Amino acid sequence: MLSDKMVDALNEQIGMEGYSSFSYLSMAGWFDNRSLKGCAAFMYRQSGEEHGHMMKIFHYLLEMNANAISPAIQKPESEFKDVKSIFEESLAQEQRVTKSINDLVELAIKESDHATYAFLQWYVIEQREEENLIRTILDKINLIGEGSQSLYFIDKELEAINKAQVAAEQRGTK
Q1: Measured by CB atoms within 10 angstroms of the end CB, which terminus of the chain is less buried, N or C?
Q2: Where do the domains of the chain lie, and which CATH numbers do they carry?
């Protein structure tokens, strides 16, 4: 049985994952409006992935006979300065989620909640992978540069990264 404190914390995480999903969706729209289809596809996939993370926690709460709450989601930004700033915000967002997951793990340890601790280990690994992926993209953006012609190459890089991620998901290695 989950403690009230753990239920509340997991429901807060549902909201955080939901916000991340909508934030990535907003970023995808920004890219799509600028015909950066590779970047848009990457962000649409990220949005769907975050939605899946949210639902995984939602279902876990129900499985544990706890109240899962559909959160009110704050409206994310819809206007951005440039491609680099979008990925900088993506990294900051992933780092906030990582901190929140780590706080949940600490709470599970403190409460000797072994089931939730085990459940959260998937998120710990996922967050490490997400942060690494976004840092890699930022490294590529820094290598390519940010001029108008660079956008073409950035878009192609993101298209390739997205295809590799989709292929890894289909193989079950991600």
Answers
A1: N
A2: 4-171 (1.20.1260.10)
Helix (H/G/I), strand (E/B), else coil: 24:
helix
Q: Are 14 and 54 in contact (CB under 8 A)?
A: yes
* 78 three-class SS: coil
82: left (phi over 0), alpha (psi -120 to 50) or beta: beta
Cβ(151)–Cβ(36) below 8 Å: yes
- The response to whether 146 counts as a known ligand-binding position is no
**Sign of the torsion angle spanned by Cα atoms 172, 20, 9, 135:** positive
Instruction: Count CA atoms closer than 13 A to 155's CA, side-chain side.
Output: 16
Q: Is 17 annotated as a binding residue?
A: yes
Which H or E run includes 137? helix 114-144
CB count in 10 Å sphere of residue 40: 22
Whether 165 has a binding-site annotation, put simply, is no
Give tens-digit pLDDT for 32-74.
999 999 999 999 999 999 999 999 999 999 999 999 999 889 9
Distance CA 126, CA 50 (A): 11
How far apart CA 128 and CA 62 sit, in angstroms, is: 26
Does 53 belong to an annotated binding site? yes
